[in-house]
Amino acid sequence: MLRAALTGGIAAGKSAALKHFADLGACVTDADELARVVVEPGSAGLAQVVAAFGDGVLTATGQLDRPALGQLVFADPAARRRLEGIIHPLIQTRSQQLEAEAQAAGVAVVVHDIPLLAEGGRAGEFDRVVVVDTPLALRRQRAIEDRGMRPEDFDSRVKAQASQAERLAIATDVLDGSGTRGELRQQVEALYNHWLSTCT
What we know:
- The chain is of the alpha/beta class.
- It has one domain (2-194): 3-Layer(aba) Sandwich (Rossmann fold), CATH 3.40.50.300.
- Helices cover 58% and strands 12% of the residues.
- The protein has ten helices and five strands, in the order βαβααααβαβαααβα.
- It has helices at 14-24, 31-37, 44-53, 66-74, 77-104, 117-120, 136-147, 151-160, 164-169, 181-199, and strands at 2-7, 27-30, 109-113, 128-133, 173-176.
- A five-stranded parallel beta sheet has the order 2-3-1-4-5, sandwiched between helices.
- Helix 1 packs across helix 10 and helix 3 runs antiparallel to helix 5.
């Protein structure tokens, strides 16, 4: 089984690329989705986050208040590292479980969407590292217009993450995320078919 990691900056087009890989038959894991799962109400992960950051990161219904937590950690590198120390091991454990299930089912390719791959120094764990490369100005526009993100929140997240040059330095494959979804899909399909040809 070929193991790939998918990464890129915020609003680069990772989610669209991941969906295309899934549509083609790859087993995919989404770190952002798993990050939500491991802090669901009643989970050990949520209890650890509350113990570290206080009840102010909870909504009135007992769920994680992501915007409130985001404002805390993206402005404070030490707080961000503390949060990552709680969440990342939980995500990694769940990713490994999903990968093991895929391997047992005979899936040829697994793609892990890992936004902070460059920051975590885990690129060497994978057979391929795919970077979705999209200009910063376009990513900023997408985040503000499509996601409703405040400009200052986008800027603080970019500052907290690896640069695009640092991501490209670990890439074995690069997808251009600046075009349409259809254009991105064509690139993903070509890359996926290439991988399958090397697996067999």
